[in-house]
Amino acid sequence: MIRWITTVIIILLCLAPAAGYGQVYLSLSFDDPQTTVSPVLSWQQRNAHILQTLHKHKLQSILFVCGKRVNTEDGAQLLQSWDGAGHSLAHHSWSHRNFGAAGMDLATFREDFLRCDSLIKPFRHYTRLYRFPYLKEGERRAQIDSCRDFLATQQYANGYVSIDASDWYIDGLLRDTLAANPNANTGVFRDFYIRHILERSYYYDSLATALTGRKVKHVLLLHHNLLNALLLDDLIVALKQQHFIFIDAAEAYRDPLYRQHPATVPAGESIIWSMAKATGRYEDQLRYPAEDGVYEEAALRALLQQAAKH
Ligand SMILES: [Zn+2]
């Protein structure tokens, strides 16, 4: 255990920006708002905690809405609370199907798209950005091009992320833990979560700097979940201590980084991953999928087992 912690600390020190590395400019985006039941907090409390944290840090974010998850009165109330607080509302499909999968056709994509578009369109901060479910844009050239052409006819751009991560996976284990014991200590989750986001941020930022020769403005993928309801403030504070500079999502999306269409097949993942893949020069640094719970599972479960013994 001690050896493992030491290794992690050494890795983090190596990853941490040395003098001259420059800062990380980071905005936050949240996918999949929902009003489902979770341990410890009601959906209203989860939502309020996230919004209060953003307000505390004076951040405007962007919420990528999956229509089927908020097609209720509660869901409308949730969307209204974000819109009323000035955050952008963008598109994350109606059904959350993997439109990148083989066999998906444009007619299915179009119908699904229009359904969610009409749900979010009435809101004041409606923003024409589309984020593909699972960040999977397509597995065939013709399919990718037809979706891109369709989105362009709708005056939509791709709601890319630059820093992909697995907060959803950590959230799953956190919910299981709190369901079993509502008084469980969440310290292990907090430390693991902060470390995970730091690692992924430094990885994508280093790759972005190598690819573009400049410091890009990042969009981090997070989810509207219990993990962030409980730990978003701790995360932001920890990243600020590491000299991250937080910016609004709208400012980040003005970076020309997000107006590219890398010619990779399959298309998707983070825009940084995709650009790196397109060069053919970073194969040793690109895993596929780029992010997944399987990469985090062993380390997080080991920490939880260790904590359970004390
Ligand atoms: Zn999603």
TrEMBL record:
Which domain of life does this protein belong to? Answer: Bacteria
Q: Which UniProt keywords apply?
A: Hydrolase, Metal-binding
| Keyword presence, Hydrolase | yes
Q: Tell me the ranges covered by the NodB homology domain, including all copies.
A: 26-140
GO process terms (BP)? carbohydrate metabolic process
Q: Name one GO molecular function term.
A: hydrolase activity, acting on carbon-nitrogen (but not peptide) bonds
Taken from the UniProt entry, a GO cellular component term is:
membrane
Is Transmembrane included in the keywords of this UniProt record?
Answer: no
Quote the InterPro entries the UniProt record gives: Glyco_hydro/deAcase_b/a-brl, NODB_dom, Polysacc_deacetylase_ArnD
Q: What is this protein called?
A: Polysaccharide deacetylase
